[in-house]
Automatic annotation (TrEMBL):
GO molecular-function terms, A-Z: ATP binding
Keywords assigned by UniProt, alphabetized: ATP-binding, Nucleotide-binding
Domain of life according to the entry: Bacteria
Name listed for the protein in its UniProt record: Potential ATP-binding domain protein
């Protein structure tokens, strides 16, 4: 059960990360995912600790 929860959490984090990447690309009119884009997306994620 805990393993499934962890798996689900990781998937949700990845989904959020890719959503942020897409948003950053669109806002900045970019077509290429760079390290800077990924880092900006990662930095903008708000992760809570339970």
């Amino acid at each position: 059960m805990i393993y499934e929860t962890i798996k689900k959490s990781h998937f949700q984090i990845l989904q959020s990360l890719f959503s942020q990447i897409e948003r950053i690309l669109k806002i900045n009119k970019l077509s290429l995912i760079t390290t800077d884009v990924v880092e900006a997306a990662r930095d903008s994620l708000v992760l809570g600790i339970k």
